[in-house]
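To: structure desk
From: M.T.
Subject: fold request, one chain
Message: Could you run this one when you get a chance? Sequence is below, nothing fancy, just the single chain.
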Amino acid sequence: MSASAENTTNAPPSANSSGNNKPTAGSDKPPHVVIAGAGLAGLFLGILLGRAGIAYEIFERSAEIKPLGSIMCLSSNILAAIEQLGLYEDLLSFSKPLRDCGYLLTDKLEHIAHFESLSPEVVGYERQLFPRPELHNMLLSKIPVEKIHFSSKVSFFEQSEDGVTVTFENNTTVRGDILVGADGARSSVREHLYKTLDKEGLLPKADNTGMKKGFISLLGTTISLDPAKYPDVLKEDCQSYGIVGDGGNPYTWVTFTVPGNRICWNVVVQLGVNAAADEQFECSDWVPQQNEVMMNSIRHFKTTYGTMGDLFDATPVDVVSKVYFEDMFYETWNHGRTVLIGDAAHKLLPSTGAGAVNAMQDAVILANHLYDIKPTNLKNIRVALDEYQKERFDAVKDQYSQTHMAARLQFGHTWWERVLRHILFNWIPRSMQLRQMSKEGAYRPQANFLPQAPKRGTLDVIPQKPSKRVQKDKEEEARRKNSAAI
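Reply: Done. C-alpha cells follow.
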C-alpha cells in the first residue's frame, strides 16, 4: 500500500518491510507523514507538505467536517504564507477588510472605545474578516480526496526505530515515519503520548493538569439580510461592534458584517460572575433546541441593528455553535516520531484570533523542518521536531499571555477588569498599542522551500530562517559546477 489505512485483520508491515510508505533508515526519500485531525492546522500542513513533495495523509475523527460557525480575523502574520501558497485571492473572495478594528460600546450603546489598526501602507496587508467555516472549506478543497480519511479517531500508536504505527478506533492502522497530532484541544494523540511519557516518568507536572475554562460562547451567522434594514452589510469593509454588559450583566456580544449581506454574531458569558448565567450556559445538552432556549433568554440585548433577537431570528438554529473558551499551554510538544501542533500543543483564548493563526504558523514552521530531513532516519526526525518546538515555543508563549489580557479587556466583568479596561482605553498612549501591533505584524513565517511572497508595506519584517536543505543543495550544485569547470 502507498500509505493508506489498512484493516487490523491484516498483519501490519514488519520492521524490515520494504513498503512504499516507509523509507529505510538513511533513505533519501522524504518521510511519510501521518496527520491526525482535519482542522485548520492539519489541512494547512497538508497543503504545505504537498508543495514540499512530502507524502502525507490526513485522518479525521469525525464522519464529516462541521467547522464551528465562529468569526475569524487574519492579518499579515499569516496572510503572507497564504499568499505564498497562491490562496490569497481565494481568501479575499469570502472576506471583508477590517479597516477599523471596530467600536466597543456599553449595553446602552454608549461609546467606550474605538480601535484602530496599522495602515496597509505600513503593515502591507489589510486585516481580513470572515466566517471560519469558509476558510476551512477553502483549505479542504485544496486537499486531494484520496489524502483524507474520515471516521478515523486515533486509539493508540506505537513508535519504534523503524517507524510509527497508528491504530484507529475503527480497527484500521497506518504506518508512517512521523505522526502529527493536529487533532485539537481534545487531542487523542496528545492523550496517548502523555500517558506513555507519564508511565516513563518523562512528563512534566505542568502537562498533567486540565484546561482552564473562563468563558462560554454562543455564535452564529445570519442568512442574507435586507440591506434596507441593515445598511451596514452593503459597506465594502467590515463593520464591527462589541457591546459590554453592565455590572449585573456578565455578557459581551459582538457583531461583524461579512460578504453575502450577512452578520456574524457572538455572545460570550464570563463564568463565575453570575450563577444564573453560569447555569444557563453550562448545560451539558448542547443540541439546537437547548441553544434556542439560551438565545431566547438573551434576545432582548441591544445592538446597533435592533436587538440580538432580530439576528437570532435570521440565523438557522442548527448552525448555531456553543463553545468553551479554554486555555492551556503545554510544555511537551514532541517525543520520538510524534509532534503536536495547534490546539493540541497550546490552547489559546480566541479573544485576539491568535488560536487559528498560531496553529497555521505551527504548520509553516513544522513543514520547514520536515523538508530539511535528509536522509530520513530517526535521528534526523528527532532533530527536526526538536528544532520546530524551539523555534515556535517562545513566540506562542508570548501570544498566550496576550490572549489572557485581551480576554479580560473584551469579555471581563469583574470590578478590577472594568477598571483595567478604563485605564487602558483612556490612559495608555496610542503609541504603545501601535508598537505591539508592529511587533506582531513583523513576525510572518513562510515556507522556506518555496519562493517568498512579495514584500509588502514599509514595516521591517523578521528575517526568514533559510532552509538547511536548500542551502546544502546549492553548495553541492556549486561544487559540481566547479568540478566540471576544472
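Reply (cont.): The chain has a mean pLDDT of 87. Let me know if you need anything else for the meeting.
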